[in-house]
Amino acid sequence: MNRSRILHSMFYDMQKQTHKTFFSEDAAAVVSPGIPVWLYPKKDFGEDTFRLFFCSLIAEMKIESIIAPKNAALICAEVMTAVYGGECREKEMIAYYLNDETRGGFSRSVKVDGFLCPVEPKDAELVIGWLKLFYAEVFNTELPSGKTLTNDKLNGHMPPPPVNPSGLFVWWNERPVAMGMLYDGDITARLNLIYTPREYRRRGYGAAVVNALSELAVKSGRTPMLYTYADNIAANALYQSLGFKEAGRLTEILLHRG
C-alpha cells in the first residue's frame, strides 16, 4: 500500500468516529467535538473553491483549530484570522504507518513484563485521570468535555471480541501502568492516547503498548497508523524504532486571540 493511499484511508476511516462530514467538489471535512476539524482537499484543489468551502464551514460553526495539508492549512489560517481576529499558530504533524516489510515481525523486540488487556469499569477513575494528564502534557489544555469518560460510559469504549479490536486498553503489570487506544477502520487502525504516567516511564511500557496494539491491528487485517507532533523527539524515535514509516506531514492550525 503506497503512502498516498495510506493518508487517504486514514482520513476516510476517521469518518466512522465523527459526528458530521462535509463534502465539496474539492475537499472533505470531518468534525467531532473536542478535536480540530480535519480537512482533506483533493491533490490539485482550487484555492478559491477551497476557500469558499472553508468559509461555508465557518459560517455554520465556530472553528478555532484545524488539521490539513500545509497549503490548505494556510488558507484556513487566513480565513480564521479574518473572521475572528487574533493570530494563528501552526504545528507540524507526522502521520506514521507500519509498513508491509515490518508487519509480519516488528523491527525491535519488546520484552516487558505484563500484558495488554481491555480497560475495565473498575479502572475508569484511573483512566480518566490519565486522560486529563495526557491532554495537559501533550496539548497543554484540559480534557475536552466530549471526551470525558464516566463509569457508565466506559463500556462504550471497551473492545468488542477481537475480530475488529477497538477501544481503550491498559498494559497490566500487577496494576495498570500505561494505556493506549485503537480505532478500527476499513483499511487502517489508528493508535491514539498512548500514555505512561511519569512514575512508570523508562521501563518500556509505552513501547509495549504500541507494539501490542499494532499486533492487534495487523491480526485484524488493518494497517497500524498514528499521528504525532514533529517536535516530539521521544515519540518519533519510539515509533521509528518499532518499524513505523512516515506516510506524510500535516499542519495543525490553532487560533489564539489577543
Structure commentary:
- By secondary structure, the protein is α+β, with helices and mostly antiparallel strands.
- Helix 2 crosses helix 3 (70-84).
- The protein has helices spanning 3-14, 47-60, 70-84, 100-103, 124-138, 205-219, 233-241; strands at 20-23, 27-31, 37-41, 65-68, 87-98, 115-118, 167-172, 176-184, 188-195, 223-229, 244-256.
- It is built from 7 helices and 11 strands.
- It has an 11-stranded mixed beta sheet, with helices on both faces.
- Helix content is 33%, strand content 30%.
- It starts with a helix and ends with a strand.
- The protein folds into 2 domains: 3-94, no CATH class; 100-242, 3-Layer(aba) Sandwich (Aminopeptidase), CATH 3.40.630.30.
Topology:
Layout: H1 3-14, E1 20-23, E2 27-31, E3 37-41, H2 47-60, E4 65-68, H3 70-84, E5 87-98, H4 100-103, E6 115-118, H5 124-138, E7 167-172, E8 176-184, E9 188-195, H6 205-219, E10 223-229, H7 233-241, E11 244-256
Parallel strand pairs: 3-4, 9-10
Antiparallel strand pairs: 1-2, 2-3, 4-11, 5-10, 5-11, 6-7, 7-8, 8-9
Helix pairs in contact: 2-3
